[in-house]
Amino acid sequence: MINRARLAILDMNNGYPNQGMRCLNDIARNFADEIEYKVYSVRDKDEMPDLSYDIYICSGGPGSPLIMGEEWEFRFHSLIDDIFLYNKSENDQKKYMFFICHSFQLACAYFGLGELTKRKSTSFGIHPVHKTPAGYKDPLFRELPDPFYVVESRDWQVVQPDLGMFKKKGCEILGLEKIRTHVELERAIMAVRFSEQMVGTQFHPEADADGFSTNLQRDEVKDKIVTQYGEEKYLRTLAQAANPQKIEVTYNGILPVFLRNCLEEINALAFA
Predict the structure, then answer these.
(1) pLDDT, tens digit, 9 for 90 and up, residues 8-61
(2) Global pTM?
(3) How confident is the model at residue 82 (pLDDT cuts 50, 70, 90)?
(4) pLDDT greater than 90 at residue 145
(5) Is the domain covering 5-116+130-141+157-207+250-271 a CATH 3.90.1720.10 domain?
(6) Residue 61, helix vs strand vs coil
(7) Any idea of the CA torsion for 143, 237, 17, 44, to the nearest 10 degrees?
(8) How far apart are CA 233 and CA 149, in angstroms?
(9) Which residues, listed in sequence order, are joined to residue 58 by a DSSP beta bridge?
(10) Rounded CA gap, 233 and 222, in Å?
């Protein structure tokens, strides 16, 4: 009998309640027969996993992704560094890491891949992401349609990719922000393959349609969205959440596939 793989979920939400962690816990529990997991509260409790885990998933979170000099930031960067160097070593068994939204921005800054800027306005709702040529070939993205639809909730973005650094680090852009025909704004980087074992998205692949729709219908959430974006935007987002060809495809097609791919590689080595 093969031991279950070990997964560390890094909660980057700084103690704020959110739907993302519920979704990540649900996804992890769907693999209960093959994966055991533990959640670490990184920012508010200064918890950080060690290198004993096989898989790491880092959540989104509020606030600026720019370095503020807090202790958890240095420990988080050290963890990325340790895992990256571990995978570069002669160890047959690799370690896998997925970054979401806030942690994706932190990872892009760590690898020096582009410029972190604050958006002119918050990007919220369900939006298309377009695959790049690398995204069409990537094992995690190639089965997704183009465009595919994602949940966004962010005030920051990664733009101005340093293509020289991408080449030096062996990273690839897998997805770009929606195409705008009416405004001249650079399209943000939405997904990056940092290495064979490290990948991340600017959006929230963990968002499930039912949970997202239920949350939208909470009075305080509805009132906030209508006040900030208008009723038309609210109703459009609610309708998109109910469309099975939109975020449900992304929910089923990214993180579960990431975990399944990790398990296949871990188990293949165990049987070797």
Answers:
(1) 999 999 998 889 999 999 999 999 999 999 999 999 999 999 999 999 999 999
(2) 0.93
(3) very high
(4) yes
(5) no
(6) coil
(7) 60
(8) 16
(9) 10, 99
(10) 11
Which tens digit of pLDDT belongs to each residue from 186-243? 789 999 999 999 999 999 999 999 988 998 899 988 998 899 889 998 999 999 988 8
Residue count of the chain, please give it: 272
d(CA 253, CA 140): 8
Residue 36 · residue 82 · CB < 8 Å: no
Q: Is 148 exposed, middle or buried (0-12, 13-18, 19+ CB in 10 A)?
A: buried
Question: What distance, in Å, lies between the first and last C-alpha atoms of the chain?
Answer: 14
Q: What is the mean pLDDT of residues 104-108?
A: 95
Phi, psi of 61 (to 5 degrees): 175, 165
Domain coordinates of the chain in residue numbers? 5-116+130-141+157-207+250-271
Chain-centroid distance, C-alpha 85: 21
Q: What is the pLDDT of residue 155?
A: 87
What tokens appear for 225 in the block? 């969205």
In angstroms, how far apart are the furthest CA atoms of the chain?
58
Interatomic CA distance for residues 25 and 29, integer angstroms: 6
Place of tokens 């097609």: 253
- State the burial class of residue 268 (Cβ atoms within 10 Å of its Cβ: 0-12, 13-18, 19+): exposed
Q: What is the rounded CA–CA span in Å between residue 132 and residue 147? A: 10
